Amino acid sequence: SGMFWRGDPFTGSGPPTNDNWPRNGALLRGTGPHDARGEKFFKVSAIQQAGSSTFVDVPDGTWMLYNQGGLLL
Predict the structure, then answer these.
(1) For the stretch 56-70, what's the b/e string if a residue is b when 16 or more beta carbons lie within 10 angstroms of its beta carbon?
(2) CA–CA separation, 39 vs 62, rounded Å?
(3) What DSSP letter does each residue of 4-57 carry, written as one string?
(4) pLDDT of residue 24
(5) pLDDT above 80 (res 61)
(6) pLDDT tens digits for 9-52?
(7) Coil, helix or strand at residue 65
(8) Residues 6 or more apart from 67 whose CB is under 8 A from it?
(9) What angle do CA 27, 18, 45 make, to 5 degrees?
(10) I need a surface site. Which of 12, 17, 20, 21 has the fewest CB within 10 A?
(11) Residues in CB range of 70: below 8 A, 6 or more apart
(12) 45's torsion region: left (phi>0), alpha (psi -120 to 50) or beta?
């Protein structure tokens, strides 16, 4: 299980991909929080899946909710 990628909260466009979505225990690199539509979002630049030792770049325009009232992953 895990979380699915979000699209750009400022433009409303969908995520550029749903490949390599973050599984439980994944680490994300990026910037944030960015405030949009009354929520906070994290612009993701790379992901390290649980059990991996390397980060993999994600396509530009990949976002994730910054907070979900608890742990996301």
Answers:
(1) eebeebbbbbbeeee
(2) 16
(3) --B--TTT-PPPS--TTPPBTT-EEEEEEEEEETTEEEEEEEEEE-TT-SS-EE
(4) 85
(5) yes
(6) 999 999 998 888 888 889 999 999 999 989 999 999 999 999 99
(7) strand
(8) 33, 40
(9) 40
(10) 12
(11) none
(12) alpha
Give the Cα separation of 60 and 38 in Å (integer).
Answer: 22
Which amino acid type is present at position 9? P
Residue in this structure with the two tokens 């749903």, named with its chain if needed: 18
The two structure tokens encoding residue 70 = 């608890």
Structure tokens at 8: 């750009």
